[in-house]
Amino acid sequence: MSLKGRNAIVTGAGSGLGQATARRLASDGAAVAVWDINEAGAQRTASDIVAAGGRAIASRVDVSERTQIEAAVKRAHAELGPVTILVNNAGITGFVPFLEITEEAWDRMITVNLKSMFLVTRAVLPDMLAAGWGRIINISSSSAQTGATRMVHYASSKGGVIAFTKSLAAEFAAHGITANNVPPGFVDTPMLRASDSLVPGGSIEKTAAASPMKRPGRPEDIAAACAFLASEDAGYITGHTLSVNGGRYSS
């Protein structure tokens, strides 16, 4: 699945799913703009790509801030060229009983997990329209498919991502642009490890043991799905929810 000659942006690529996805797209031939609010993490990912023979640049970007997004897109244009692959991965999580979710926490979750995708996609779409080709891949969550206790704000934001993706797909399909989303299941990432004691099963290991595949997902599992959706092979797939969850949820 060659992506040679394509330029990509991957948000939240300083660690976890985004890092694995940036590396995979680069190994398939894309030049990658690595975005993360953690500048050191973004730099590590970009350095790894370059050391492996790929092309990458790192930018510190808060995806909830429009001016930072616009500046980073401008830099990507200058150093890589037009962007026709976008992986909206950046996000936050949280385990809080519904009655303890503050209005501020709700707004922050929606802003980082959903509004950011609106801002970043809007900034990149002109490149795709000009090329008559584009791939938008949004990371949602299986929590939006099943519902999740103590995660009403998180699951709601990710449910919005699924609807956002389907609506984009319908509006831009005739322009050669696809939009799909990947809802990870239970994937072992630094963000999940930071909440280990709060996960519904009591720990990552216990939850994994109770799952159909008896293991957590790996970031590379999600990266492979993103690479497929970015490829020419997925050119007739749009508005799709590609669940990568080890059997946690099926539809």
What's a quick, concise take on this entry?
By secondary structure, the protein is α/β, with parallel strands linked by helices.
Topology summary:
Blueprint lengths: L6 E4 L5 H12 L3 E6 L2 H13 L4 E5 L5 H14 L5 E4 L14 H29 L2 E6 L2 H5 L5 H21 L4 E6 L7 H5 L9 H6 L9 H12 L21
Helix pairs in contact: 1-2, 1-9, 3-4, 4-6
Describe the structure using short key phrases.
single chain, 251 residues, Rossmann fold, 9 helices, 6 strands, 12% strand
What features would you describe in this structure?
The protein is α/β, with parallel strands linked by helices. It has one domain: NAD(P)-binding Rossmann-like Domain (Rossmann fold, 3-Layer(aba) Sandwich). The chain is 47% helix and 12% strand. The chain contains nine helices and six strands. A six-stranded parallel sheet has the order 3-2-1-4-5-6, sandwiched between helices. Helix 4 links the parallel strand 4 and strand 5 (134-139). Helix 3 (66-79) packs parallel to helix 4 (103-131) and helix 4 (103-131) runs parallel beside helix 6 (152-172). The longest helix has 29 residues, at 103-131. The protein is globular and about 45 Å long. The mean pLDDT is 93.
What percent strand?
5-15%
Which CATH-level-2 architecture? Answer: 3-Layer(aba) Sandwich
CATH topology: Rossmann fold
Task: For the record, give the distance between the C-alpha atoms at the N and C termini, rounded to a whole number.
Answer: 27 Å
Count of domains: 1
Judging from the principal axes of the Cα atoms, what is the shape?
A: globular
